[in-house]
Amino acid sequence: MDNTSESKNTILVVDDNPTNLGVIFNILDESSLEVLVSQDGESVLRKIEYIIPDLIMLDIMMPGLDGFKVCSYIKANPLTKEILIIFMTALSDVEQKVQGLNLGAVDYITKPFHREELLARIKVHLDLKNLTKTLVNQNQLLAEKIAEKTELEEKLHQLNQELENRVTARTKELQTTLQNLQTTQLQLIQSEKMSMLGQLVAGVAHEINNPMNFIQGNLIYTGNYIQDLLGVIKLFL
What are the pLDDT digits (tens) for 125-144? Predict the structure, then answer.
């Protein structure tokens, strides 16, 4: 077996026969697998409360809880249902094998078993489990990347929308400023025209006032001259 890929996998071997436990323990231990052992179903359920193995080699025929009941308990628990279970049995009853597979087991090994077959079956299922775990992690990472990309796209959309709103507001502000400048310019031009007109009127009035003042200032003398002239005329009449 590949020691590198299997070194982190833990296997729980369950058999009420100490000899079988010793044989399987030695085979798996030589393959750099972490091995735990139990001799009855009750101890299995206690162990998996604090240690979750990757795979359980589970004997069917045991006192107390048999392998089928233990498998049912494991698969009914959300925390342990993903544990791989391979049944070990000396029986070749097809109905029992079907029953075990229906309960959630992934394989059967018939006693007495061969070392190479045991390791090969374990390797296949552990490789599939590790590959599945890798794929799940990759899918989770991909989902996180997609979520991150979606979030960035939403933020970019919001920034673009905000920028468009700012541009629109700035454009309206500039248009208003331009209109105000044009209005002010027209007012300045009108004011300049009125100022020039006032200066022109003042100049014309000044030009008119000078002769008028001269005439007005000489009306008395003119009246006196006319009176004197009329008096002279009367003397000749």
Answer: 998 888 888 898 999 899 98
**Mode of pairing for the β-strands spanning 55-59 and 84-89:** parallel
Angstrom CA distances, 152 to 1, 148, 166, stand at 45, 6, 21
The CA-atom distances, in angstroms, between 31 and each of 3, 37, 77, 105, 190 are 7, 16, 30, 23, 103
- Long-range CB contact pairs, 23-27, < 8 A, 24+: 24/57, 24/118, 27/115, 27/118, 27/119
| Segment 204-216, tens digit of pLDDT | 777 777 777 777 7
Task: Please tell me the distance from the alpha carbon of residue 200 to that of residue 195, in angstroms, as a whole number.
Answer: 9
CATH architecture of 3-138: 3-Layer(aba) Sandwich (3.40)
Q: How many CB atoms lie within 10 A of CB 13?
A: 25
- Residue 63: asked if its preceding bond is cis (omega within 30°), the reply is no
Say how far apart CA 158 and CA 169 lie, in whole Å.
16
Distance in angstroms (rounded) separating the CA atoms of residues 155 and 162: 10
Q: Would the pTM of this model clear 0.70, i.e. be above it?
A: no
Per-domain residue ranges of the chain: 3-138
